[in-house]
Amino acid sequence: MTVTPVVETRGLVKRYDDQLAVAGVDLWVGPGEIYGLVGPNGAGKTTTMKILATLLAPTAGEAFVTGIPVGADPIEVRRRMGYMPDFYGVYDDLRVWEYLDFFARCYEVPARKRPTMISELLEIVGLSDRRDAYVETLSRGMRQRLCLAHTLVHDPALLILDEPASGLDPRARVEMREILKALSGMGKTILVSSHILPELGEMCTGVAIIDHGRVLRSGSIRDIERSLRASALLRIDVLGDPKAADAAAAWLGTNPRVGDVLHVAGSDGVTRIEAAFDGGAAEQASLLHAMVEAGHAVVGFTQATSDLEEIFLKVTGQADGEEQAA
Ligand code: ATP
User: Fold this and answer.
1) CB under 6 Å to ligand 1: residues?
2) Which of 14, 19, 52, 215 to mutate to test the pocket of ligand 1 (most atoms within 8 A of CB)?
């Protein structure tokens, strides 16, 4: 059975005069995913999202939402998608419930359904107790959550959220992340942008790292991590005096799967050695076994997980390097 992607773009291009904002972007987002578009300022995230939200026409390429071509049937696409832009105008002289009621009416949600729907949405975004407050009295975090509720009034399958956590304090960011996870649990597919990879890493099923209008890497964070690091980085803690650590490092160096070996730090009679290693879990287990058999006092043996920010810098940095080399 073939799955219809909720978001698909093929060779998407957008040119503003002489500025190439999107330079051939291919995306594929399956049902129920939380998919991140990550890239520095000016990478082309907003432009890509605006095309999917039917607000901009692409210069070339194709975009589909739940299989519907965005250019050919924008009205149907708008029914199936809720878009939260990076800058949202809110209507200050409205109460919270009136604000949602107004947009629900715009989407022709029947009057008898609106009160329950508004209560449910306020519950989801944690604003039930602000129902009768004026929008202008809400904090920035609360406004962002109200805007998120606005994107949900017509019960769309897809949410397109452009930097929903921007300008929020750390606590409000966590709250926003929890809400997105809850929405995903309710079956929504979410396309979300950020210029901070770690912010998305924890909740996203997949990400596309975008820079200069191009997708540099896409897939799960794990896959991206793997593609960047041909070999794993092992952290091995060895007990004993410096000579014992030297001997362990020398022994590691003779293993054909081991690349660079580094002494990192030592404390309390334990020295940490970092070693690049070309092999999976089974090969790592054999290495540990052989190391202990050879008489090295191994007290710690783990594969390092890389920092997401480091991955992001590596990917975008590589692109700059490639461009300079070209
Ligand atoms: P940010 O995180 O800063 O919002 P972004 O990744 O969303 O960045 P876009 O806003 O899509 O990036 O911009 C991509 C490029 O297109 C940038 O170089 C930007 O200056 C340019 N651009 C965007 N909108 C327009 C426009 N209306 N006219 C001309 N150039 C534009």
Assistant:
1) 16, 19, 21, 39, 41-47, 86, 195
2) 19
Mean pLDDT of 137-163: 93
* DSSP character string of 89-141: ---TTSBHHHHHHHHHHHTT--TTTHHHHHHHHHHHTT-GGGTTSBGGGS-HH
The pLDDT value recorded for residue 306 is 61
Please choose, from the candidates 119, 306, 308, 275, the residue with its C-alpha nearest in 3D space to the C-alpha of residue 203.
Answer: 308
Backbone angles phi, psi at 126, to 5 degrees: 70, 35
**Cα(205) to centroid of ligand 1, in Å?**
26
C-alpha to C-alpha distance for 107 and 283, rounded to whole angstroms: 58
Query: For the residues 92-99, what does the mean pLDDT come to?
Result: 91
- Say which CATH topology domain 7-219 has: Rossmann fold (3.40.50)
The per-residue pLDDT for 229 is: 60
Q: Where are the domains of the chain?
A: 7-219, 227-303
Domain 227-303 CATH assignment equals 3.30.70.260: yes
pLDDT of 82 reads: 96
For the chain, percent helix, then strand, then coil, each to nearest 5? 40, 30, 30
pTM above 0.90, yes or no: no
